Amino acid sequence: MQNAHLTALSTKHSMLDQRIATESQRPLPDQMLIAQLKKEKLRVKEAMAR
Predict the structure, then answer these.
(1) What does the alpha-carbon distance between residue 31 and residue 7 come to, in Å, rounded to a whole number?
(2) If you write DSSP's letter for every residue of 5-48 in order, what string do you get?
């Protein structure tokens, strides 16, 4: 169970990273969205560390 949870968190972390990269490369990136995504990515990373 723990391994499945960690895998899910890792997948979510990777997806957030991809969304941040995609948004950053747009001609007019939404800085508010990028900030929200980065905060969520940090929360996921902290959950993975526990």
Answers:
(1) 29
(2) HHHHHHHHHHHHHHHHHHHHTSSS--HHHHHHHHHHHHHHHHHH
